[in-house]
Amino acid sequence: MTNVAVLGARGRMGKTVCQAVTDADDLQLVAELDAGDEVTRETVAGADAVVDFTVPDATKGNVLAALAAGCHVVVGTTGWTDAGLAEVEAAAGAAGRNVIIAPNFALSSVLAMHFAALAAPYFESAEVIELHHPKKLDAPSGTAAATAKKIAAARAASGSAAMPDATAADPDGTRGGLIDGVRVHALRVSGLTAHEEILLGNPGELLTIRTDSFDRQSFMPGVLLAVRKVGGLPGLTVGLDHVMDLPGR
Amino acid sequence: MTNVAVLGARGRMGKTVCQAVTDADDLQLVAELDAGDEVTRETVAGADAVVDFTVPDATKGNVLAALAAGCHVVVGTTGWTDAGLAEVEAAAGAAGRNVIIAPNFALSSVLAMHFAALAAPYFESAEVIELHHPKKLDAPSGTAAATAKKIAAARAASGSAAMPDATAADPDGTRGGLIDGVRVHALRVSGLTAHEEILLGNPGELLTIRTDSFDRQSFMPGVLLAVRKVGGLPGLTVGLDHVMDLPGR
Amino acid sequence: MTNVAVLGARGRMGKTVCQAVTDADDLQLVAELDAGDEVTRETVAGADAVVDFTVPDATKGNVLAALAAGCHVVVGTTGWTDAGLAEVEAAAGAAGRNVIIAPNFALSSVLAMHFAALAAPYFESAEVIELHHPKKLDAPSGTAAATAKKIAAARAASGSAAMPDATAADPDGTRGGLIDGVRVHALRVSGLTAHEEILLGNPGELLTIRTDSFDRQSFMPGVLLAVRKVGGLPGLTVGLDHVMDLPGR
Amino acid sequence: MTNVAVLGARGRMGKTVCQAVTDADDLQLVAELDAGDEVTRETVAGADAVVDFTVPDATKGNVLAALAAGCHVVVGTTGWTDAGLAEVEAAAGAAGRNVIIAPNFALSSVLAMHFAALAAPYFESAEVIELHHPKKLDAPSGTAAATAKKIAAARAASGSAAMPDATAADPDGTRGGLIDGVRVHALRVSGLTAHEEILLGNPGELLTIRTDSFDRQSFMPGVLLAVRKVGGLPGLTVGLDHVMDLPGR
């Protein structure tokens, strides 16, 4: 049984994490802290691992305090700088405890990106479609931009030729945006949540990888995986793909 | 048994039409004409219906000649002007024969556009994706543009509110092109032929209509339908949707 | 402004309906009744329309009481017999008030079924896939079975030939179930809610119609449409397709 | 420049291979042999690599003869026994030449199967849909059965719990076939060629991997990859995944 404390426990993600930990047979929720609560050996109440879903301003302080309290830490809060990561890595080493920081805990999304990069060198064409609810403020999504960059890097590393595209006229700008040479298309449609579709094509064949994230629940398998693995991953690990031990090229 | 003559019989579409007529139990191929062949009562060899897949410069002359030869006519050649259509309508009336002109003989495509227009007033959001082979010169496809216009017209007629879209930043132009207020996205991927996907969304629900056209064969059911129906549709009929007797609103 | 009373207001669907009515600019929620509350002119509090999402045992009594109280009625409760429908129709006539009973308020689902029936005569092949969460007890879904039956009826009415299928060996039963001659496939996958995909094919072309229902929210546009239209649809109307005034064949 | 001889050069696959070799800048077609032609050092005309797309009865003899003639060999013919493979492995060792035998040269299909196996341990649910033209005699496809087996093996190796499925009633057999505990669904629809869709689901998220193979052309990138790599893969290699150097777990 692993004891878990949750920071940001009254936020939307934090509440979902508390519930997921409570529902897991091998985990025990021992503390729920939120803004204003100090993170100390006492308040984390014997936690083996602390999960932080707070805010960019607070997260680094939380992680350092949790390490000082003798805990491993799993972080879903974004906004980390290189300097902040280096500080955490040093503190983790000094404390003999481990930290996992991941910008994206959706397993399907992490896998899709990984597979797209593995497959890209074998195909002439690659384009990315991302589809979200219409309340989203920015386009494209960070995930779609990251996917395009991974595809571009994999193609560059394998010496892929430029993608075929005879488009001579596109007066309305329907061909989407170019990110590192990969076309990205963003849709905003009521009813959708967060979805991504990657198309890879050769003459006569197509490979499509699609992910659908329907709600916050979709991040829980990734969070729990990190909680279960953090004790065995020395130092600082950034990115769920490294936690998942996905075979690289 | 309906006797059929094909004009443009040595072109790619013409050859496919000749084969489809030959394969149909209720149709008989009686003449195959191409560039340089005159269209007369003799050369059409007793055809009840003439099918024209030639070139814009030749098609109007062919239709008038075929009417004069006592035939109904089915036309797949594009590039018609309003004046040309009026001339054909008058000639059809005088000859007591019928003409069907259709820019698109793909049943699935015609149905998809029709359904999109019927459904559009019931949804907050609508976007169109078209996907083609990378040798296509223009974007978006004519079909996608026509679909967007039909959706826009149906929404306007029913007094639909503007689609929700909170996008505040899209530096790369990933949100696609706006055609009559409807977002259209064009993909060019090796392996694809001609495909369209229409997404219609409300909070909590999505309706998606997709068509795939894999080869010229996909136009044959529409061509044969027109050949079989042209005798019963007096005067000039423009558009396969009218041949299909699809219920309007 | 239309005044609305909700019966079954503390149930899951009832709560969602109360919220949707409250959120609509042209509707006003005037009464929330649940089990144990009597339905009278006083308790419905001046409602023009009553919405019933209760249980099969209670619904007929509720409808008759609401008609007696001078209200139009919209019913989402299932389990109606022919005798019950006849009794309601007579009572509606006597009261000079109208009733809409619909087994399915998802607009996208009603449209998909309608479109599938319109399109079916034009295609050689048709198959239905339904995809649901793994807690669903029965397979296939009622919607998928109803879709298959509508497709079969439309094919029969138009004299369609049998679908091509050369399958000679299927030892594992992978070809799915036959409902009125139409293959239906049921998937149960974590993460899904309620989805249906209808494939219609000819040589060289495919038409796919897909609906995704992500949550109860998806039924609200259909419920509100019925509330807004019930005053103008004399007597008893069964099925949202008739409320939507979809053009038949 | 690699010299290539093709065996079965007048068959449908053989013709396509000859054309693909001719079109490749770094390959030269030096011999086209078919039934009745002997495979000798003279007839292969200086080929570095021989490609065999013949028939099960002939393929082993062809491979042994090609090895004796000093060539590497790429084989797409199916029907190999364990004894036959052992014999080829020994002959390759003795000749100091290499052999690649692959039952499936579609890159997208090989990648999809590989990715499905990598992803399967991270998801509660997995089901496979395969979609083919209606002239196919058997169901499910060999690829779908192989995919289901790979998913089952990956789940077993990682100690996955049984998939959730509350289905209590399925009178029509719509839940498809069970292959090693994985549900497989087979569709036969006009217009389709060969397609596969793998769904992997967790609460709140879905990962879908789809492949479309539209024609024989889709096998050429895999064949050419094998031709280019066979010189560097000592001995016998079975399966394109090993040629592609996909990272295993």
TrEMBL record, chains A, B, C, D:
Q: What positions does the entry give for NAD(+) binding?
A: 8-13, 38, 76-78, 102-105
- Location of the protein in the cell: Cytoplasm
| Residue ranges annotated for the Dihydrodipicolinate reductase N-terminal domain, each copy included | 3-105
CDD domains annotated for this entry? DHDPR_N (cd02274)
**Keyword annotations:** Amino-acid biosynthesis, Cytoplasm, Diaminopimelate biosynthesis, Lysine biosynthesis, NAD, NADP, Oxidoreductase
User: Which positions are annotated as binding (S)-2,3,4,5-tetrahydrodipicolinate?
Assistant: 133, 142-143
The record, for PROSITE patterns, names:
DAPB
Query: Domain Dihydrodipicolinate reductase C-terminal: where?
Result: 110-243
Q: Which reaction does it catalyse?
A: (S)-2,3,4,5-tetrahydrodipicolinate + NADP(+) + H2O = (2S,4S)-4-hydroxy-2,3,4,5-tetrahydrodipicolinate + NADPH + H(+); (S)-2,3,4,5-tetrahydrodipicolinate + NAD(+) + H2O = (2S,4S)-4-hydroxy-2,3,4,5-tetrahydrodipicolinate + NADH + H(+)
Q: Which GO terms describe its biological process?
A: diaminopimelate biosynthetic process; lysine biosynthetic process via diaminopimelate
Recall the GO molecular function terms of this protein's record: 4-hydroxy-tetrahydrodipicolinate reductase; NAD binding; NADP binding; oxidoreductase activity, acting on CH or CH2 groups, NAD or NADP as acceptor
Pathway of action = Amino-acid biosynthesis; L-lysine biosynthesis via DAP pathway; (S)-tetrahydrodipicolinate from L-aspartate: step 4/4
Instruction: Please state the Enzyme Commission number of this protein.
Output: 1.17.1.8
Annotated active site residues, numbered on this chain, are 132, 136
Q: InterPro entries, per this entry?
A: DapB_C, DapB_N, DapB_N_CS, DHDPR_bac, NAD(P)-bd_dom_sf
* Similarity section: Belongs to the DapB family.
The family database entries (NCBIfam families) matched by this protein are listed as: dapB (TIGR00036)
Assembly and binders: Homotetramer.
Q: What is this protein called?
A: 4-hydroxy-tetrahydrodipicolinate reductase
Tell me the organism. Bowdeniella nasicola
